[in-house]
């Protein structure tokens, strides 16, 4: 459902993303992991069409985002790492605005707005200005906006930030159900326990390159280990530094 081929993003001479390729099949909940500055958010923003790559190709449901941007983006919902919203709109107005970007309006949209606000426990805040929302409520509103047009694919960057335990559990259940119904999710997160519990497949990016990809069983086999995701992640992205810290604390 998502296919990226030799994707590259340069900032001057710095290669933020270095010719990576990845396939996320239909129905998958795919984890995309890496340390700060590894290229995760840059990659997700290119997939969402916010950043333009210097080289490579991105396909969403078979549509090349460079050649067929409207067709590709209609299939996609994007949840960014920070909930940027328009403070002077109400929650309902913001969702109507986003629906309008996809050419949707009328009673079906109003029903969808009520449905999403109810799921995320924002109904009583429907007609309140977003400036009065807490960070967690803004995050729920952004997630609702990514679902408003019933996308086939969701690209999500750090979805649990700002959510309380109830909201995080709700989102995990929603993601599982979305994929069970044939939807596809590419999710970046620093919470490795969530990635290991939710994701069928995982890719790890380090310094702009994908250093590992596969199921947990495949990753363990590739690296001849039976450790959990956290230890495997540290070995691939910062094992030496991790060992040095342990040595200092144990000295």
What does this entry look like structurally?
α3 crosses α4 (107-119) and α3 (91-101) packs parallel to α5. The longest helix is centred in the last third of the chain and has 16 residues, at 165-180. This protein has a domain at 27-83 and 151-250: Rossmann fold. 41% of the residues lie in helices and 24% in strands. A hairpin with a 2-residue loop joins β4 (55-60) and β5. The model has no long low-confidence stretch (mean pLDDT 92). The protein has helices at residues 40-47, 69-74, 91-101, 107-119, 135-147, 165-180, 192-198, 216-222, 229-237, 239-250; strands at residues 2-11, 14-24, 29-33, 55-60, 63-64, 76-79, 153-157, 184-188, 201-206, 209-214. The strands form 2 sheets. The chain has a 6-stranded mixed sheet with strand order 6-7-8-3-9-10, sandwiched between helices. It has 251 residues and is an alpha/beta fold. The protein has 10 helices and 10 strands. The protein is globular, with a radius of gyration of 19 Å.
Total DSSP helices: 10
> Regions with pLDDT < 50 over 5+ consecutive residues?
none
| CATH third-level topology of the domain at 27-83 and 151-250 | Rossmann fold
Structural class: alpha/beta
Note the main sheet.
6 strands, mixed
Q: Within the largest sheet, what's the order of strands?
A: 6-7-8-3-9-10
CATH architecture of the domain at 27-83 and 151-250: 3-Layer(aba) Sandwich
CATH class bucket of the domain at 27-83 and 151-250: Alpha Beta
Q: What is the H-and-E element order?
A: EEEHEEHEHHHEHEHEEHHH
Rounded mean pLDDT score: 92
The CATH superfamily of the domain at 27-83 and 151-250 is identified as P-loop containing nucleotide triphosphate hydrolases
Q: State the total count of DSSP E strands.
A: 10
Distance between the termini: 50 Å
What portion of the residues fall into strands of 2 or more residues?
A: 15-25%
Shape annotation:
globular
Over the alpha carbons, how many angstroms does the gyration radius reach?
A: 19 Å
Share of helical residues: 40-55%
